[in-house]
Amino acid sequence: MSANTFYFLDHTPLHQVIEKPSTVQKAGGLLTNAVEASPILHAGLATLLLIAVAWVVSRRYREDSTLPAEKTFSPSNIMEMAVRGLLLFMESIMGPEARRFVPLIGTTALFILFSNLLGSIPGFDSPTANINTTLACAIVVVAATHVIGVRAHGIKYIKHFMGPVWWLAWLIFPIELIGHIARVMSLSVRLFGNMFGDHTVVATFMMLVALGVPAIFMGFGVFVALIQTFVFTLLSIIYISGAIEEAH
Amino acid sequence: MSRSQFLRDLLKFSTLGLEMGAAVVIGLLMGVYLDRQFGTRPWLTMVFLGFGFAAAARAVIRAVKAGLLMEEEEKDEEEKG
Fold first, then answer.
1. Which residue has the higher pLDDT, B63 or A27?
2. Which range among A75-79, A85-89, A191-195, A231-235 shows the weakest confidence by mean pLDDT?
3. Does the distance separating the beta carbons of A227 and B22 come in below 8 Å?
4. Dihedrals φ, ψ of A20, to 5°?
5. How many CB pairs under 8 A join A and B?
6. Closest Cα of chain A to B75: distance in Å?
7. How does residue B11 score in pLDDT terms, banded at 50, 70 and 90?
8. Is A175 on the interface with B (CB under 8 A)?
9. For residue B3, is it within any domain?
10. Helix count (H) and strand count (E) of chain A?
11. How close, in Å, is residue B52 to chain A by CA atoms?
12. Residues whose CB is less than 8 angstroms from the CB of residue A102 and which lie 6 or more positions away in sequence, other chains included
């Protein structure tokens, strides 16, 4: 079987657009080829999708302020359900303070969910199947936990890194530092590895049996996308609640 | 323990393995980098690898503590209800 048979697997419609030399020049020569640019473009696409959803949903609230209960299965109902579910879930872990962190957690959760599921649509790619996208999300979340920690405790936040007794601080500090960098790494590598592995499995089975069988693994792919979004969100919540609680 | 609670804890603790591995790798990389900077091969590599192992162990200890706390809370709830 020649390699050309599966040309479509890593040449999505977006790739074909940017493989024209003129588009590469337009991007200022930063993007040298389609494979490099793909996650950036698809992440942009996921963002645009989210903006579109937000616009559609918020239109309802702008038009009438009385908000009668909609009994249909409308986009705004689905999004309301999702945000409400997220808030309840966060409150079950963090308590009443959860409401402050809904914008951060909700944005990363929805972005990752849309990015993961984008790969399940034929002709599109998951931006999260690239380590750069997931690393960006993980750095944002972990940096935000420290900002939140400093805002909650002020200078005393450093006690989180010093351990129980002062004469052990020189030993605990590098250990905590490594632990916090390991959080960034484990968050990003987990999401990237799962999405990349999932796509590789689908592509491999498409090469072996092009009909029927890959559908099973695409179904698994949707499952993995949901689970990984949930894990990323859960860990972000746990890290943030760890930063706002008192040092032991 | 409800089913969703069980699933959540399952996911929470399943993340431990990767965090342990990541801690060791980060410690090693930091050690190698610092050794290159100061030219003290192989001492800082070994020290920071040790820190990496310690960070991994600390992650496990933290998870076990959280697990014990959860168990206690559950017992309290059972006694109350």
1. B63
2. A75-79
3. no
4. -70, 130
5. 53
6. 18
7. confident
8. yes
9. no
10. 8, 0
11. 7
12. A83, A86, A87, A90
Of the residues A160, A171, A175, the best mutation for testing chain B's interface (the one with the most B CB atoms within 10 Å of its CB) is A175
Q: What is the pLDDT of residue A211?
A: 85
CB-based contact (8 Å) between A17 and chain B? no
Please tell me which of the candidates B8, B30, B58 has its beta carbon nearest to residue A234: B8
Selection from A59, A54, A61, A60 nearest residue A82 by Cα: A54
Q: Is residue B6 part of a domain?
A: no
Q: Name the 3-class secondary structure at B42.
A: coil
Domain count, chain B: 1
Give the CB-side neighbour count of residue A142, counting CA atoms within 13 A.
Answer: 17
Contacts of A181 in chain B (CB under 8 A): 26
**Chain A: closest CA distance from residue B15 (Å):** 8
Is B46 a member of any domain? yes
Is B7 among the domain residues?
A: no
For B23-74, the pLDDT digits (tens) are: 999 999 999 999 999 998 899 999 999 999 999 999 999 888 888 888 888 8
